[in-house]
Amino acid sequence: MRPLRIGVIGSGSATAREAGLAHAVGVAVARAGAVVVCGGMGGVMQAAADGAASEGGTVVGILPGGDPAQAAGGVTIPIPTGLGEARNVLVARASEAVVAIAGEWGTLSEAAFCRKFGIPVVGLASTLPERVLDEIVGGAAEAAARALELAAERRRALA
Description:
The protein is an alpha/beta fold. 42% of the residues lie in helices and 21% in strands. It is built from five helices and seven strands. A seven-stranded parallel beta sheet has the order 4-3-2-1-5-6-7, sandwiched between helices. The chain is globular and about 35 Å long. The protein starts with a strand and ends with a helix.
């Protein structure tokens, strides 16, 4: 069976608190044997990638540009798209559930695509409107656990 794919979306420039949460989510997802999917750049994406990488996890970074060398250090598999923000739809499609941390317009677009595709969105210190989130949780471990549960449920339902 293939590992679950958990997206981590959020601000490209994160506060220390947001980065700490994203790092902890990355750690928890990697420890569960799942793959982290992200936009592959800075801020929340980099922190989640670094967290997963610190546990030997796999991180797929779907990059806006065409140069794989631009990926954050923790990204294991950089996917250069050359699509700019249009790559947000690929981040959503590649994920089976998503944790949204903080966020601005790009994060909102990723969450909106998730909603359109039926991909669960778990909010953690999220600045997104509540109606784009399936649920809101209070901590990184809870966010990762809930995203993993929702991804597994979705996979079973689609099988």
